[in-house]
Structure formats: C-alpha cells, structure tokens
Amino acid sequence: MTAFPGVLPMRFLVAGGGTGGHVIPALAVARELRRRGHQPFFIGTPGGLEARLVPASGFPIDWIEIGGLKRVGLARTLRTLWQLPVSTLRLWRLLDVRRPVAVFSLGGYVAGPAMLAAWLRRIPIVIMEPNALPGMTNRWMGRVAARALTNFEESARYFPPSRTECTGMPVRAEFFALRQKPRTATFNVLITGGSQGSRTLNRAARESWPLFRQAAFPLRMVLQTGPAAHEEFHRHFAPAGLEGEVVPFIEDMPAAFAAADLVVCRSGAGAVAELAASGKPSILVPFPFAADQHQLRNAEALVRAGAARLVPDREMTGRRLFEEVTTLASADGLLERMGEAARRLARSRAAERAVEVLEEIAKQRDFR
Question: Cys-Cys crosslink for 170: which of 54, 138, 228, 351, Cβ 3.0 to 4.6 Å?
C-alpha cells in the first residue's frame, strides 16, 4: 500500500557510494522514496561505506567492483578501466531484471557504470551534484541526464539550464530539527574528519590538548578519529586532563552536532550540508587531495556566506586550532551570527524535491 493516494509504486535505482558524502544523502532520498510507497534499490561496492549503511537501513543492494580514476596511480587507473566495461555489462543485465523506471545518482566512481548502463538502456537519469565544482562523472553524464539537481548555485552553470535546478543537498531531518544551542561555561568543540577520520585533524587535536590545558580554557572536546587511529589517540587523551571523549565513529551525528558550539571538520558536500541544516558555525579544513579541489570550493562558499572559517590543511596545527577556537569563542555574538548564516544556506525539502523530480521523470517516460 502506498503512503500517498494516487501515487503508483515504482522501482528506482539509487547509485552513490564510497564515502558518507555520497551514501548518506542517497539514503535520505531512498527513505523518502520508500515513504511514498516506492521501491528503491542500491548499487555499491563491498568496500564502500554503503556496504554497512545501506543494508542497516533496510534497502537491497547489488554489488559491483569499480574504483576511481583521479589521483590513483597507473595501476589503479588500469584496473578501473578494466572494471568499467565489466561492471557496466553486469548492470546492463541487472537493469533488464529489476526494470527501474529511473536512476538517481550522487555521482562518483560507483555511479559511473550505473549511469552508463541506464543511458544505454534509455532509462532516464536524475543526477545530484553535491559539490560547488561538479565531479568528472556528473560533468560527463550531465549532458544526457533528464535532470540535474545541484547543492550550490555556482555549480548550475556546468549543466543545461533548462534541465537544472538548485534543490540543496538531501540531509537527514534530524539536522533541521536542531535549535541554536545556548552558550554555557564550558565550550563544546566537535572535531571530525569523516567516517575514516583525518590524520591532519587528529594530529592538530592532540597537539592542542596541552595548549588548552595550560590556558585553563573551559573546553569539552569530542574527537572522531576514525577506526584506525582510535586506540592511539584514546590512550593519550585521558592523561591530557581535558573534558570530553575520543571515539572511532559517531553513530548519532545529529546529537553530536546538537551538543557542539563549534564544529571542526573537512568540507565534503555532506558535511557542509549538515552544517547548514543544523545552523552550526564551523572551522573547515578542506582535504587537499580531493578531486578538482571540490572541498576547497565548498568551504569557500560557506566562508563567503559568513558561516565558516577556512584553514588550509598545511596550516592546521595544534597551535592554529587553539588560536582559532579561542578567538571564535571570545568574540561576542560571532558564533551566533555564523550559525545563522549557515542556516540561511539550508534547503529543508531537498530529499522531497528530488523524489518529486524522479516521479515527474518516470511519468513522462510512461507517456512517451
């Protein structure tokens, strides 16, 4: 039974994996599809974050083997070039069995074979471009996609104007429900480098611990290190004498945002969308090896809006982290203004609008 009278159940392929920036917004759209009575299924790789998050959310997923093509070296490039036709052929056959009415793609290397197979099958494609500077896969497929949805206004120029709409990035509803946190005597900082952590942010956090302690700064720090680095940093945190915790992974990120006065993180599309939805001020440290410097462009967009401070990766040390945090904490009303500026960038109906577009495209296909 459908959740919406008059809406016929349809099957949609959702393509996007590898990192949380691809998987989490794809799941937001899949949940909205399911809420409206549709049947989404995923394409992913066994080594990506989707291998854990998608089955845990109750969605079916089919596997392919594919890797990236940028900044990966000759051996990885040759392997991917071999995997591309093999994975595309597998998906060509799968599409004939599953018969989705449309494909929703977040881009990235996982989405490449899915979009290519869908194009060959003449199944309409709706792409979501999460970054201010579109990735290679979306730039290629944007020329043939039925619609292109963007997170940033500045990325719309890379796609056909008549088929492009700035909807914002699909984000979990829990982030939009967060309210401005009242300041307390203890300043709460959340530092996260994403699901796998960040060596730069981990190192800077550890270097900052004696500086905060020597300054007697009333701080509570939560550091998400990623699984690989957790044991080492957890072992050294207790002797540092600070309030807080070091964790490998944060399952409930909206709750972690709610407790934070300031977030220090990378500037992937998912992270900046969550910062906007929750209205959180931030210090952004773009990953310097991101394809086409898209994390830098994302961070610059938030800085222009007055919602964030940008610190280049090479400059993020314990001393710089200490100075940035204490300066922002002591500036009267600054963090509140940054949070308000961040929230002005949020679009609360991104997932709903993506599903509406998918339904529109599917209906147009039915009537052709």
Answer: 351
